């Protein structure tokens, strides 16, 4: 299935010279869609977006996937690709800084200081697998800093990624969970339920870096997409979705 | 004592509609071409098909408009065309399957009967075998014993010989004849083979297109020339006789029947024993006077009772009375006219072949 | 060779597969029996529902199970009402999901076995005074033995190999829902290839042995 999809993408890329193939970290799905619309209006170029886990994109790019730009969920993967020659040196930059939120689908469940963690009156606390996902690792760091890790660990339900962590909470199966703020923000405000935006000081900065990939070398649309992301118009959109920049 | 069976059932392209009153003892053959509904009727009696109607077996109602006794509550034995032994059980356990269930409370009470039935059908040496290691005839013997061991009040057999080749059939028929002599319950036997019917049946129901078109005692019914179905080469008379004398020099036996006597090949049947004699219509020829200068051994005086057209326009079937016994003879229409055969006419019948059928 | 958490995952996986297989046989047998013997209009729809896990991605099943068994889903409301709480992130939830997911692997071999037996031996049993229930246990079940063997092995093995649904509704909790396949996934994603190899090679060997056993059983069944 996936090779077929990639082949299809590849064929369209050849046929339409004014398109850019972008691999987008799943947590950045909503802002990337909005940005692609604005980008097309401003430049006439079209950004073709593929969403997924950064680790998977890494493996695909290393194996010849036709992506021209990567918007990663972390800063390590772009650096690694650059070192390995799969990305162009010097094109790496931070396009967004992720914020962690403790969120519940129920209104009023999570207070604005995170005291709910101290009371520990829930059965399930969802988070992305800290071994695999930056937001999961950040959640564990925050709990450690609050000295609440041991009290809450028995209630952990671990998701494969941040999108699944959101799903666990959204479906009500977990009363609350650590998600990306961008997942619960809509038009600069909390969409539904209740949330505590975890102070950035409690965990390492979740830097999301973009990089121009080898396949995008010398492609006008790819370069235009990267400079568009650095522009103030794009940054306003990104902030609106709960990222800092 | 009787088996009263009235069944109606309609399927696309087939309708069964019968109302029978069968003898409460002896062998009744349900006879007819394949597709005539004889197996369906048998399955209705067992409850395997749900026909509407009524079935009473020697006074016990198994089914009527208001009630339907499930198959497993009917005291019947059923022998299928394909023996249907249980492949996962050896012969002994196959035999025990129905017996244990029929005699849940008195399992030990009938062990002598069990041994007798195993003996009757010669199953002693087969008890430890698995069904797959039995010949077709052996399988059918086990199937019959298995059915008998439930102490049925009605025994139903659906062409138990149909799946056997000729040699196996000959080997198997004597077992069935022994069984017939021992049996004190009604046996309803489906067959399309006239020789089996001639050998085994006491009573016959001739079926065609889902209806019973003729029924009655075997001899009487087979000698009818107005049967709605044609038996062709198998048309002939069957009647009872008794061995009166055995001639050691010529290896012939003289049998007496109601109306005369016949010389037949001596097959070892002792003097005084009742036998069944079958004379096919094609083996009977007719003369206006007695001819002693022919090779034929059996010459009998007879009266022409009736005649009927055969399938082929050249042939006629003639019913002849020899004493109290009816015979059938087949000859060409041309000969019939030359001999001026008409009911009441006195003739001589020459019988080319006589078969003792048990 | 295996870490304590690997061993816990192996033990949990075997426990899950055993419980699931027993339940599958209990639930799958009557379904297969009905499917094999009915000619009613609902045979097609029922067969299609049972076979759906064969074609649906596990993530679809997992997603719907998560919603159905959640606090707002009908199953979730029911389990809360009878006092056993919510099923996701629990061993019971994995059992329910595994039963749904592996159902076709148990029902289909059983259905094939029952269909191969056909009406004939059962009719014979009925004429030998066996009630339908009696005939089922004394004739149909023993004759369908190869089908039961295949169903048991496939149900067990398929549950051991299940991943997508467990990932969706399991929550990766040690001793409760972290089964071997999830453990391997974690090792691989974390690039701990040595640990992944140990478990993955074990799974490969297990799958080979199971399929070999199945093949041998089948060929022996044909011969006898």
Report on this model:
The complex is a heterotrimer of chains A (about 240), B (about 350) and C (about 220). Chain A folds into two domains: about 1-95 and about 205-240, Periplasmic binding protein-like II (D-Maltodextrin-Binding Protein, domain 2, 3-Layer(aba) Sandwich); about 100-195, Periplasmic binding protein-like II (D-Maltodextrin-Binding Protein, domain 2, 3-Layer(aba) Sandwich), CATH 3.40.190.10. In chain A, about 40% of the residues lie in helices and about 25% in strands. Chain A has eleven helices and twelve strands. In chain A, the strands form three sheets. A five-stranded mixed beta sheet of chain A has the order 2-1-3-12-4, with helices on both faces. Chain A has a five-stranded mixed beta sheet with strand order 7-6-8-5-11, with helices on both faces. In chain A, a hairpin with a 2-residue loop joins β9 and β10 (about 190). Chain A is globular, with a radius of gyration of 19 Å. Chain C is an all-alpha fold and about 220 residues long. Chain C has helices at about 5-35, 45-55, 60-70, 75-80, 90-115, 120-125, 130-145, 145-160, 165-170, 180-190, 195-224. Chains in contact: A-C, B-C. Chains B and C meet through β6 and α2 of B and α6 and α7 of C.
Short description:
The complex is a heterotrimer of chains A (245), B (358) and C (224). With 245 residues, chain A is an alpha/beta fold. Chain A has helices spanning 2-15, 29-43, 54-62, 76-83, 115-119, 134-145, 149-152, 162-170, 181-184, 220-230, 232-240, and strands at residues 19-25, 46-52, 69-71, 93-98, 100-104, 125-128, 156-159, 176-180, 185-186, 189-190, 194-197, 206-212.
